[in-house]
Amino acid sequence: MPIDYTAPSTQFTFDVNTSPLFKKDAQNYINILGIAQLNTLENVSLLDIFLSMNNVVEPHYHQNAGELVYCIAGAATVSILNPLTKQIQNYTITSGQVANIPQGWWHYIVANADNTHILAIFDAPTPEVILGSDILKFTPSNIMAQTYCLDENLWKQTVAPIVPSTYIGPANNCNQLSTAPANPLQTQSYIHLHPYPYHYPYVYQHGSYY
User: Fold this and answer.
1) Taking residues 2-26, what's their average pLDDT?
2) Among 22, 23, 113, 184, which lies 20 to 30 A Cα-Cα from 165?
């Protein structure tokens, strides 16, 4: 639908600092800008990402958008699974450098320094996402065991500490994972502030995340 640039409701500016998507702590959080925040956007959106050293934007892929990762400050390694070569390609970027991730490619980002600040820019007004934590948590354990010849009980124990929609890991209580309670959701300090994206492919089972 064409944008009516004369309408009183038309927006041309927005403060991304007022649009939090996810917060792990004061050094690790993500703000979002999409068409829901700025209604004149067409084929562009972004995530404003702040990370401290060794924090990870979890493995995931965007089924409807390519992604350009631009490093504003600090340093990060962008890792991509190339589906054509079946190899992981690692690209370390610092201030002013970029890494490009084609649409649908599995990838993750690791901060190599404190105060790392990156922009993830997408060629879609609202990028869709499938997160590794959700795949691991919501795929039935019997299917994983049957498909990959695994011990189902061991698989359940292995994935028990995983919190769906992790976004930034590791968890703040990571050193306690060996003795994690049966319900790790009660111990996490993550704050999910927006369902991301607005056409998210999963139905969440834990409403307390938002």
Assistant:
1) 95
2) 113
